[in-house]
Structure to design on (142 residues):
């Protein structure tokens, strides 16, 4: 069975209360439940994690080697400046899908630049929590 790791970066634990106009009212737990249900439907195995710490995210990416077939990552603000996460994704050579709830290209200019994107198969953004379902389907189809 295909194994997919979903990594959520900083501040995503606050979904549901955080800037609701941008990120909606669904909590990360609500999203996790939907992702797990969709994984069952797609017959894939999924792990869903969140961390506010760059080093911990990097450790999780390293640990994924040999265990996961695809990584889906919403790196939060690290998207825009973490060369270390970019390098970690490149190093493990696991196909990765970049994911954002909001359309990062339609917000402040600094958000339109993703330093992670060159290491990823593709990017999904702007579909809110449903983006996780789209990313899971893309991961299952890879
Ligand atoms: C985000 C977009 C980032 O710019 C922001 O820093 C986040 C969330 C998104 O899911 O839309 O924390 O990754």
């Amino acid at each position: 069975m295909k194994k997919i790791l979903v990594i959520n970066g900083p501040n995503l634990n606050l979904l549901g209360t955080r800037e609701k106009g941008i990120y909606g009212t669904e909590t990360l737990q609500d999203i996790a439940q939907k992702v797990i249900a969709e994984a069952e439907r797609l017959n894939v195995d999924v792990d869903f994690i969140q961390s506010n710490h760059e080093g911990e995210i990097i450790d999780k990416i390293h640990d994924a080697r040999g265990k996961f077939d695809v990584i889906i990552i919403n790196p939060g603000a690290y998207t825009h400046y973490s060369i270390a996460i970019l390098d970690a994704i490149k190093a493990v050579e696991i196909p990765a899908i970049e994911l954002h709830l909001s359309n990062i290209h339609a917000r402040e200019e600094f958000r339109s630049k993703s330093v992670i994107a060159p290491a990823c198969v593709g990017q999904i953004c702007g579909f809110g929590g449903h983006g996780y379902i789209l990313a899971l389907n893309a991961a299952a189809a890879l």
User: Anything to note?
Assistant: The longest strand covers residues 3-8. Strands lie at 3-8, 45-50, 70-74, 96-100, 122-125. The mean pLDDT is 98.
